[in-house]
Amino acid sequence: MRAGAEASVAPRRNERPAFALLGEEGLRQCLRRMHLVRRFEEAAEQSYIRGLIHGTMHLSIGQEASAVGAVAALRPDDYILSTHRGHGHCIAKGADPRFMFAEFFGKDTGYCRGRGGSMHIADVAGGNLGANGIVGGGLPIAVGVGLSAKMRRSGQVCMVFFGDGASNEGAFHEALNLAAIWKLPVVFVCENNKYGMSMSTARSMPVANVADRAAAYAMPGVIVDGNDLLAVVEAADEACARARRGEGPSLLECKTYRLRGHSKSDRNLYRTKEEIEAWRARDPIARLRDALVEAGRLDAVEAEAIEASAAAEIEAAVEFARTSPDPDPAQLERDVYA
Amino acid sequence: MPDTTLPATRELSYAEAIREALAQAMEADPRVFTLGEDIGVYGGAFGVTGDLVHRFGEERVIDTPISELGIAGAAVGAAITGMRPVLEFQFSDFVTLAMEQIVNQAAKIRFMFGGKASVPMVVRMPAGSGTGAAAQHSQSLEAWFAHVPGLKVVQPSTPHDAKGLLLAAIDDPNPVLIFEHKLLYKTKGHVPAEPYRVPIGTAVTRRAGSTATVVATSIMVHRALEAAEALAPEGIDAEVIDLRSLRPIDTAAIEASARRTGRLLVVHEGVRTLGIGAEIAAHVAGSEAFDFLDAPIMRLGGRDAPLPYNPVLEKAAVPQVPDIVAALRSLAAGG
Questions:
Q1: Which residue among the candidates B16, B20, B68, B269 is catalytic per the annotation?
Q2: Is the dihedral of CA B236, B210, B155, B113 positive or negative?
C-alpha cells in the first residue's frame, strides 16, 4: 500500500502526509479494515456469549488504528509478528476473516486447522508469522526474521507488535539490542494500552514511555497517538524506510487503549469507568472517518457503505466458520514429527 | 595376523568431525549459517567452530552477545523464513535462559500453525560432567527436551555419529537439539571425508552379546563397552546399544535386543529419577519383550544431587565403569 500514492492524490496544502502516502484506495482500505477488525471482535464476543466457542480471547477494540496504520506502511511481502491481542494485525495484513473465524471456532478450515485458536492465528503465506500466546514471544523471533531478510538481501522488513507489558520482559531488551547491533530491518511496534493485564505502566515502568527505552539501544524511539491512524501510518512509514535503507531498527510506541477487559475474566477492578469513557470518546474509527470526510476525501454515504460492506463480510465469515467441519480426531498427530 | 582387508581409516576428533559437518553443510547450502557466543575468532569455548569464521566470514559464522533467549529467537525467526541456522550454546546449562523460544516457539510452531510453517533449526550444546566445572556447567538436561513433542533430541557418542547426526539435523525440516559430551570432544575415530547422514531416531549396536542388553547414551556408551570387555572373561557377554536419539526413540531396537538377551540395563548420565531410563524401562515393561525378561530391569543414572566440584565427588555423582560392571554382575545373577 505504501506504493499506492496515485497521481490522483496530489498533496494539498496543510494536508496530512499520510493522505499522499496511502492514496485514495489506501485510505479507504484502512477505514474498511478498521471496521473489519471491530466487527470481527464484536462478532467474536457475541459468539462467545452465545456459547458458540470455548477457550479465551483478547479483544483489541479501541486499538484498531495502531494495527491497521502500522501494517499499512508495509509492502505485501514484508513480515509481521503479532501478539495474543492479534486479530487486528492479522486483518491488517490482509487475512481472510472467514479462515480467521474458522480458526476461532476451532474448525478444520481455519488458518491453523483448528490447532491454534485465537492466540495462534498465523497466515504464513500472507507474511503473518503468527500471533503469540507468550508475552514478548515474538520479539526474539523478529530478530531472526530480520537477520534472514538481511542475509537473503530480500529488502523485506519485519514488523513485530507487542504491548507495554512485554517491554518489561528480558526478551524485549535482548531483541532490541541484537537488532540494533546487527542493523536489522525490524520495526518494533509497541501498542501501549496502559495496562499489562491489570498492572498499569505507571506501576510497572520507571520511565514514562516505552519509547524512552530505545535510547539504550541507540535506535529512534518515536511516540505517536495510537488512536490516530494517519499519525501511525506516517511514523511507521519512516521506520520502514529507515529499515530498508539499512540503517537498522526503530521503536514505535503507539499510545492507545483497550476498551474491553484483558480477557473474559476481567472485571475492570483496576481502572475507572471515567477513564474508559474518556478513551471511548477517542474512538480511532470515527476519528479516521471524520478526518476523511472533513478533508473531502469521503462523503457520509461512502463511509456508511464501507462500514456496511465490512459488516456483511464478517457476517458471512461467521456463517462460513459455523458451517465448517470440525477437525478429525484421527488427524490429531498429523503435524507431529517427533 | 594382520588383516590387510581393513578399510582405510581417517581419524578425526569428535570436535573436528562436527566442524567438518558444519563446513560441508555451509559449502553445500547458502542457507546454512551458525551463530553463538564466542564462535568466531575465539573458535568456540570448546574449539568446535575453530577456523570456520576465516573460511566462511562473519556473516555466516556469527558471534553473538551473551543473549541466549535472543539468539534462540534469532534462530527460530531465521528458520521460519528460509534459512538453516545452527545455534551453539556455550554450555547446555545455558539453554535454561532460552527455554521459552525452544519449548514454546520452536517446538510448537509447525503444529500450532496447522502444518503451514516449519522450524528447520539445529541447537548444538556441550553437555555433561567431568571437567570440574561444577553445578551450573555440567548438567545433562536432554531428558527435559525429549519430554516435549516437537523437539528432536540426539546424543552422538562417536566422531562418526557427531558428523552424521549433525548433517542429518541440518537437513531436517524440524528443530533438532544435539547434546555433545564435553569429554568426547578430543576422542578420535573414523570419519569418512564425504558428507553422510546418520538417520535421527535409530539406535546402533556397538557390541553384540547374549547375556544382557545395556542401553546407553553419549559417554555412557564408552563406559558400558569398557564394562562389557571387563566382564567378558567372567562369561558375562553384554550387548551394548548406543541409543543416539532420545526423540524419536528407537524402541524397536531396544525391544528386539531385550527379547534376545532377557536382561536389560539402561545407563545414562542425566539424573536417574524421571530420566530417560525410566521411560525405556516402562516401555519395555509394557511391551511384549517383558515376557522374555528373566530379571528386573535395572537403571543407572546421575545421582539426585547437583553436580559437585570436587573431582572425587563429581565422579561419584554419575555412573562410572565400576558401577556398570557391578550392575551387570547383579543383573546376570538375577532372575
A1: B68
A2: negative
The whole-number pLDDT of residue B182 equals: 98
Task: Output the domain CATH number for residue A254.
Answer: 3.40.50.970
Residues B304 and B266 in one domain: yes
**Cell numbers at residue B297, please?**
530391569
Closest residue to A140, CB basis, from B69, B247, B248: B69
- Give the nearest partner residue to A145 out of B77, B111, B149, using CB atoms: B77
Domain check: are B179 and B83 in the same one? yes
For residue A3, is pLDDT > 90?
no
Range of the domain at B135: 11-190
- For chain B, the domain total comes to 2
Q: Which residue of A has its CA nearest to B60?
A: A151
Please tell me the pTM assigned to this model: 0.95
Is B152–A337 a contact, with Cβ atoms under 8 angstroms apart? yes
Instruction: Return d(Cα B83, Cα B71) in angstroms, integer.
Output: 14
User: In this structure, how many other beta carbons lie within 10 angstroms of the beta carbon of residue A159?
Assistant: 30
Exposure on the CB side of residue A306, measured as CA atoms within 13 A: 26
Instruction: Give the model's pLDDT for residue B9.
Output: 86
Say which amino acid occupies B121: M
Q: Are residues B117 and B157 in the same domain?
A: yes
Residue A66, classified by CB atoms within 10 Å of its CB into exposed (0-12), middle (13-18) or buried (19+), is: buried
**Segment holding B268, helix H or strand E:** strand B264-271
Q: State the maximum Cα–Cα separation within chain B, in Å, rounded to a whole number.
A: 61
CB contacts under 8 A, A 99-118 vs B, are 110-116
Confirm whether A332 is domain-assigned: no
Return the closest-CA partner of residue A229 out of A3, A80, A68: A68
Q: What is the mean pLDDT of residues B190-219?
A: 98
Q: Report the DSSP pairing between strands A186-192 and A221-225.
A: unpaired
Is residue B300 helix, strand or coil? strand
Residue by residue, what is the 3-state secondary structure of A33-87? HHHHHHHHHHHHHHHHHCCCCCCCCCCCCCCHHHHHHHHHCCCCCCEEECCCCCH
What stretch of H or E contains B50?
Answer: none
Predicted local distance difference test score (pLDDT) of residue A6? 46
Same domain as B210, residue B186:
no
Task: DSSP for A110-169, please give it.
Answer: STTTTSS-GGG--BGGGTB----SSTTTHHHHHHHHHHHHHHTT----EEEEEETGGGGS
Supply the DSSP symbol for A198: T
pLDDT at A15: 85
| Helix A64-72 vs helix A229-244: crossing angle, to nearest 10 | 40
Q: Read off the pLDDT of residues A293-326 as tens digits, 9 standing for 90 and up.
A: 999 999 999 999 999 999 999 999 999 999 999 9
- A175-211 burial: b if 16+ Cβ within 10 Å, else e: bbbbbbebbbbbbbbbbbbbbbeeeebeeebeeebbb
- What's the mean pLDDT when you consider all of chain B? 97
* Given B16, B20, B88, B137, the catalytic residue: B137
